[in-house]
Specification:
Elements lengths: L1 E7 L13 E6 L2 E5 L5 H7 L7 E5 L5 H4 L2 H10 L6 E5 L2 H11 L9 E5 L3 E6 L2 E7 L7 E7 L8 H6 L6 H7 L4 E2 L5 E2 L12 E5 L7 H7 L4 E5 L7 H7 L4 H10 L4 E5 L9 H7 L6 E3 L5 E4 L5 E4 L5
Parallel strand pairs: 3-4, 4-5, 5-6, 12-13, 13-14, 14-15
Antiparallel strand pairs: 1-2, 1-16, 2-3, 7-8, 8-9, 9-12, 10-11, 16-17
Length: 314
């Protein structure tokens, strides 16, 4: 199961109930953090994501509301004794930003920190999970991210393995992992002989800050979950265009055209208070839309089903 945790759902100015942008994705012992808005360190602790987990941070762009929390997070990890290395991915300006941030920590970070200046393409890979960056249309250089889970084999079928005379144990494990094996009598058994067809990849797309654009539409095609900024409603479409953002209606139209399964609207302006105007504009266009809030969690099962858990459930 993949878990998405919204640590911050606000845009530009944090409010009492909505922090700056930050989204954590948990998968098999990893925490992948997308953006690090102001005070993300406290949100991270409240969400109980774990101090010394295997971790990577992905920054969409270097506007303040997406990176102000990074120095505090590095400091907190150091003060509490993190030892695992940390990789940070994003625009090249991040290199100097992190360098300066580290210089403000008395003895430097207690863990190795590597900043990768990236462009479009696959930038992270761990077993069956990968992250791909793509350029979006904001003010200056900005990225969105595709998170893709791909499984090479379908469900392992023990009854088929027994039928073919494969003894239970390491050979079963190898077949379930997609390998072929050879029995003692020389018979070759392929993984496909004892597994169901491979499931379709799961895809989560995070837009970052952007006007609607072809690259986002392409990345979102068939996505299980599209997490998209909706800074404005159509009433302020002129501001959205001028400042490089999306309206709720534009995000919903893009989700509909891209055959997205679930649209999560986030990074909406504090002028909309509880966001009712934002979600109210999106749902008539794309009914499977929800409004993000801080500490909302989404559980995405490997069969593609998504369960949304509100903060009250935690």
């Amino acid at each position: 199961m993949i878990e998405i945790v919204f640590l911050g759902s606000g845009g530009s100015i944090p409010t009492e109930k909505r922090n700056h942008p930050a989204i954590a994705i948990r998968y098999e012992g990893w925490v992948l953090l997308f953006d690090a808005g102001e005070d993300v360190q406290r949100q991270y602790e409240k969400a109980q994501l774990g101090l010394n987990k295997k971790m990577a941070i992905f920054v969409t762009h270097v506007h303040a509301d997406h990176v102000l929390g990074l120095p505090g997070l590095l400091l907190r990890f150091s003060l509490l004794g993190r030892t695992k290395p940390l990789n940070i991915y994003g625009p090249k300006e991040l290199i100097e930003y992190v360098k300066v941030s580290q210089s403000t920590i008395n003895l430097g970070t207690t863990f190795e920190t590597t900043v990768h200046a990236i462009g479009p393409g696959e930038i992270f890979h761990h077993q069956d999970l990968s992250v791909r960056a793509f350029e979006v249309d904001h003010r200056g250089y900005a990225l969105g991210y595709e998170i893709i889970w791909t499984r090479t084999t379908g469900k392992f079928l023990p009854s088929k393995a027994k039928e073919l005379g494969v003894p239970q144990g390491p050979l079963w494990k190898a077949l379930a992992s997609g390998e072929s094996v050879e029995l003692e009598d020389g018979t070759r058994i392929s993984s496909k002989d004892v597994t169901e067809p491979s499931p379709n990849p799961l895809k989560i797309v995070y837009s970052g800050d952007t006007r609607p654009c072809d690259e986002l539409k392409k990345a979102a095609s068939g996505a299980n979950i599209l997490i998209c900024e909706a800074m404005y409603t159509s009433e302020h479409a002129d501001l959205a265009e001028e400042r490089g953002h999306s309206t709720a209606a534009a995000a919903a139209n893009l989700a509909k055209e891209s055959d997205v399964k679930l649209l999560v609207l986030t990074h909406y302006s504090p002028r909309y208070y509880d966001g009712e105007d934002v979600i109210g504009e999106a749902i008539p266009v794309f009914s499977n839309s929800v409004l993000a809030c801080d500490f909302m969690r989404i559980h995405l099962s490997k069969d593609g089903s998504a369960v949304i858990m509100s903060p009250i459930d935690h």
